[in-house]
Structure formats: C-alpha cells, structure tokens
Specification:
With 656 residues, the protein is α/β, with parallel strands linked by helices. The protein has 4 domains: 5-169 and 221-283 and 285-291, TIM Barrel (Alpha-Beta Barrel), CATH 3.20.20; 187-218 and 528-656, no CATH class; 316-409, Beta Barrel (Thrombin, subunit H); 418-513, no CATH class. Helices cover 23% and strands 26% of the residues. It has 15 helices and 30 strands. The strands form 5 sheets. Strands 1-2-3-4-5-6-7-11 form an 8-stranded parallel β-barrel, surrounded by 5 helices. It has a 6-stranded antiparallel sheet with strand order 9-8-28-29-30-27. The two termini are 43 Å apart.
Length: 656
C-alpha cells in the first residue's frame, strides 16, 4: 500500500462474510486462520481463506490473517507451518503480537503489528517499524495530536498507520488486561477473554461508602469515528479498521457500506488520495450504524477526554427510541410511535428500561396497526406478566428491525470496475481492447470478413449497445469507442464471444498486475528497544520472544503473566478510562482544571462483583487507571500453560 492510498479494513468471522465485505467496498479484510487468532471461536480453514483471497484479489483487495496470540515454545513450530500454508494460499499479511515470530523461519510475507502490541508512543511505533513491521495499529485511546506525533516519526513510505474507527471497545489498553487469566485461567492474550469488563460492579470509595451500585463501570460504549474521518486522514491514518471478527453478516455489510460511502466523499474532496483497491460498490439499502447491535456510540479519546464514554447502565444494545406505551393488557400492549410513519413488523425486537434502569427485552411475535395513525397493538413472545415495570408512559426502543434484517439477508451490493472499450479494425477482422480504471489493458481478436449491415445508420449504435452488455462480469462500461472505417455487421454470437474473450484477457492482465506486499527488512544492526527492562506487561511467553528483546538491547526480561510467576497483587488492567472521572469524583475536576497534567493524588476505590474484589488505583500524572488484583488459587492449582523464568532478578513493578 502506498502513502497516498486510504484502506478500509473490514473484519470477517467467516470467508463468506469476508466476500461480502469486499462486495460492500472493503479494500482489505482481516480474518482468523485455523489457530492463534486471538478470537477462540472465529477460526477458518486455510482452504476457506484461499477462496476469500481469490475473490479479494480480483479487485486488488488484500487479505490479512490474524496470528496475534502470544505463543508457548511448543506452539512456535505449528505457527511457522501455518504461516507458510497461509502464504501459499495467497494471504497478503499476517497480523502478529508475539515478537518470537520475528525470530523464526517465516515466509516472505508482510507483517503487521496487532492492537495487542499496545502502540501508544512515537518511540514504540518507530521501534516496530525498524523491527520490520509494515503496518501498525495504534492504541484506540490516542488523541489526534498523539496520532500526529507518531506520524511525524514514521517513514510513511515504509509503514502504514492503522486505527480502529468502529465497533466494540476494550476498556483496557489492548494487551494490558489480565483479569480474565487471573480469575478464570482464560487468557485474553491467547484469544479467550471472559469479558469481566461487561459485568456489573458495586463501587466503594476509600472509606467504604458505596458510590455506584450494580453499574457496568468498566463497560464502554461502542467506537464510532464517522465524524472524525477527515481529521484522522490529516493526522496520518491510512488504514481504517472496523472491529468485529465475532460479528454477523448484516453488521459487516452495513458498517462496511457506511464507511465506504463516507470515504468515497473524502476521496472526491481530496483527489490526491486514492482507494487502496479497485472498483465501486453500490448498495440496495441506505447504511445506518444505528441498526446493528451497539451500546450507543462514542468517539472515545480522539477529540480529548469525554465524560460520556461508558455504557454503565447496560452492556446490551439499547436500540433507538421509537415511541411510548399507551396501554398494557393481559396479552398485549399498545404503543404510539414518535413518528407516525414508523412501521413495526412481526419479529421486531423492542426493549425498555425498568425502574432500576435495567434493560428489559420485549420480542414481538405479532403486530397489528390500529386505526389511529402511529398506534400499534403488540403481542409479545413471552407472557405479559413477566415484564417488570411495564406501564403506560414508558419509553420503548427498537433494537431489531425485521425489515432491515430481511433486506441484509438478501443480496445487498454490487461491486464493479469501470472499463473503456474500443473496437477497431485489423487486417483480419476486429479487435476489442478493454482498459480498466487502474490502467490494466487487454485485447481479443475476431477474424471476420467484412459484411454490410442491413441498416448502416443504426449499425454503430447496435454494436456499442451489444459491446456494453457486460452482464455479471466484474466490469461496467465507462465508454465504448468504435474505430471503424465503415459500418460492420457482426453476428451476435461472435460479438458475444469476442467480448467474453476480452473480459477473460483483462481478468488475466489484472491477475498478472497484482503484486504481493513486500516483507520489510528490519534495520541492521538491530535498533535498541525504548526500554531496557520488561515486566510481565510485555507479554513475553517463549524463548524466541525473549531472544528478540535481548537482541534489541533489553537487559531484564520478565515472563508473561500467563507463566503465573506474579503471585501477589499487580495491575490486572491498565486503562485510559477513569471511573473517578466518569462518576465526577476526579480531584482535577473538583479544582476546575479538567485534563491538566498534574501531581494530584486520588485515593483508591474498590470494585465488587459477588466474591470478586478488585482495587482501582489512579495514576493521575498520565491520567490512567490501574485495576489491581491477584491470581486466584484455583487458577494457580491448575497446571500453568507454560512455566517460564527468564531471570531470577525480576524488576519491581509500580502501582502494586
């Protein structure tokens, strides 16, 4: 990918979803392989990935495969073999977290730094570029000035800067969350997160007073950067990533189409920029991010710290307000819609908040429109007496619209490439030349004796019309030119064969014009890592990763948290989200100096969920929160996945 290109990078749980992402305008798709993909239930066979690659490459779109878990020593050989299989299948890049992979015999495939590598600083970004990573995804928590500072130290001809623009948000800096492993033995760094962040917690202050009860204080709203795209482009982002390798087909179709339309507008405004793949997507629906599952939206920290980034009331999808209850009966309810033109459908998913602000789902079996405009009688799937606090005047939201679901169940996009067509005479007959928008050209010849048409005045128009019928090929005509000295009659069967041969030749020319992304060579001699000491936070889980950091000048290397050497209280999560700030208890807010870097000290707090207790400690200088706890005995008693100890003298970690 070149520095003037913008890449829309879509997720795929399966190859079929990946194919639809391409059809809906993705320039690249990322997908999990059969293992090591950081999403334990989103695996795909190499054969399925090869099928996706074949489809994507027709548009010069790219396929990236996630191999972004941390690996045990006994897994490195399997990872090496898989990397070669994926390379042979035509995959364009591997997304990696474990630096041990850079020390083994990988194929000459491009490597991208996973979000799990936790890139927050110019120094870290520059180091990963110099180590041979060609694309780096920055931490979601960065502001526009922080992104620009990273761009300023990166050679943008060598390394593409990537950023998440949509989807679910991990509350922790990616790769810096160990709660799941500490409590369950399931490691987020190995693709098996238990999602403790979506649970409800009681929050107590240092005096033991309850400041929040049953709130999902670690649950974030969903990321949506639709309004910031131009500023992100200006700040240096070139690959725009949609989160969602667990998401369904409808989500990927809709969100990919939404951003494709937005980027097409940007590309019209900025003619010096170009899409990273070829072809134009058209849709049979109007994309709308509100229609998919979401926890409401936030642009997170891009424009600075905001107070409303959390989805504290519920981790579920609250949907969109559509009306209010005007009657509750024994087997049905009636609602009046805010907009009289709103249509409801059998199977719609509705919901409302009870008096405790818990979201209650209301799935509708049957709807009946009433005589009064905008009034609907609804018969739920479940008995009416089970709906807590459902009464007249309650606001009703819709979080699943069945007509929308049915629209996206069907074919919903076309993707075509424009071609210029020219039919010219040769010594032996006719030649048809096709040239696509990217400059690939191909010709096909038709040996034919000249034959006069019945109606010479209409012959040219008929030829142009027939040639332009590109049907279900990848191409659509931009212009059809005839370079003929006289009008010709060409039998339709022969003209169809000529057009078919020319299309086939152009597909072949495009295939030959497609180049694999080059593997970046690390700078020699190896550059120094920004720090000379690594704690468990560096996720070093095998000897090859240890060798990598030692080669780059690191003196003391601690084993990953998953090696279960950290027995006491440590930071199990580091996050830019601050519970104190969100509950308006930040000392800086009290002093009226919100966001000012200072030396304000905030007292710890406690999170309690049943028997689980976690301590919140606040590092006010960088404005970060540490969720502190220790590994459970039940996890320790299970056999550790990979007992490692690189050094006897381990570094002292702050904020214990």
């Amino acid at each position: 990918m070149q520095a003037h290109q913008l890449e829309l990078l879509a997720p795929a749980r399966t190859a079929d979803i990946g194919i639809e992402a391409i059809q809906h305008g993705a320039d690249a798709v990322y997908i999990g392989g059969p293992s090591f993909g950081a999403r334990s239930t989103a695996d795909n066979s190499v054969q399925d990935i090869a099928r996706l690659v074949q489809h994507a490459h027709r548009f010069h779109s790219r396929i990236f495969v996630t191999m972004n878990t941390i690996l045990r020593d006994d897994e490195l050989e399997s990872a090496r073999k898989l990397a070669w299989q994926l390379y042979d299948a035509g995959v364009d890049a591997l997304i990696v977290q474990d630096m041990g992979l850079l020390e083994i015999d990988l194929p000459p495939i491009q490597l991208h730094a996973s979000t799990q590598t936790d890139i927050r600083t110019p120094e870290k970004a520059k180091f990963l570029q110099d180590a041979g990573l060609s694309q780096i995804v920055l931490a979601r928590e960065l502001t526009l000035p922080q992104i620009s500072a990273i761009r300023d130290v990166i050679d943008t001809e060598r390394t593409v800067i990537e950023f998440f623009v949509h989807g679910a948000l991990c509350v922790a800096y990616s790769g810096q969350c160990f709660i799941s492993h500490a409590h369950t033995g399931r490691s987020a760094n190995r693709g098996d997160c238990s999602q403790a962040c979506r649970l409800p917690y009681e929050v107590k202050d240092a005096q033991g007073r309850i400041v929040a009860h049953d709130k999902h204080v670690l649950s974030m709203k969903d990321n949506n950067q639709s309004d910031n795209l131009r500023e992100l482009v200006y700040a240096g982002i070139r690959s725009f990533k949609i989160e969602g390798r667990y998401k369904d087909m409808a989500y990927v179709k809709n969100i990919t189409a939404h951003y494709r339309k937005l980027f097409d507008e940007v590309l019209v405004e900025r003619p010096e920029l170009a899409p990273a793949s070829h072809g134009r997507a058209t849709f049979s629906f109007t994309p709308d991010p509100n229609q998919n599952f979401n926890r409401e939206f936030t642009d997170y920290f891009v424009q600075g710290r905001k107070e409303d980034i959390g989805a504290f009331d519920t981790p579920k999808n609250p949907g969109q307000p559509i009306g209010w209850v005007n009657k509750v009966a024994a087997d049905h309810l009636e609602i009046t819609t805010d907009d009289p033109t709103t249509e409801l459908h059998n199977g719609d998913g509705l919901c409302y908040y009870d008096l405790q602000k818990e979201l209650v789902g209301l799935q509708i079996n049957r709807v009946e429109a009433q005589k009064a405009k905008g009034v609907w009688r609804l018969f739920p799937k479940d008995p009416m007496d089970g709906f807590k606090d459902l009464r007249k005047g309650v606001q009703v939201n819709r979080n699943r619209d069945m007509s929308w679901v049915r629209t996206l169940d069907k074919k919903s996009a076309e993707r075509r490439m424009g071609v210029w067509m020219q039919l010219a005479e040769t010594d032996k007959g006719l030649q048809l030349t096709l040239t696509d928008e990217a400059g690939h050209a191909a010709s096909a010849a038709l040996p034919l004796a000249w034959q006069a048409p019945k109606d010479a005045s209409q012959a040219e128009d008929k030829l142009k019309q027939s040639l332009g019928k590109l049907g279900d090929t990848l191409f659509e005509p931009l212009d059809v030119q005839l370079k003929l000295s006289r009008p010709w009659f060409v039998p339709p069967s022969q003209l169809n064969a000529l057009r078919r041969d020319a299309v086939q030749a152009l597909e072949l020319a495009r295939e030959q014009g497609f180049h694999r992304l080059p593997r970046a060579l690390p700078v020699q001699p190896p550059v120094a890592y920004p720090e000379d000491t690594l704690t468990y936070l560096a996720n070093v889980f095998n000897q090859k990763a240890r060798d990598f950091y030692a080669k780059h000048g690191v003196k003391v290397i601690d084993a990953a948290y998953e090696s279960q050497e950290e027995l006491g209280e440590v930071s199990l999560m580091i996050t830019k989200h601050c519970v104190r700030f969100s509950l308006s208890l930040c000392p800086k807010q009290a002093k009226g100096v919100t966001g000012v870097q200072g030396t304000v000290k905030a007292e710890p707090m406690q999170l309690i969920n049943g028997k689980e207790k976690l301590t919140l400690r606040f590092d006010c200088k960088p404005c970060e929160m540490h969720v502190v706890g220790k590994i459970k005995k039940s996890v320790l008693n299970a056999v550790p996945e990979s007992p490692l100890q690189f050094y006897k003298t381990r570094p002292v970690v702050g904020l214990h």
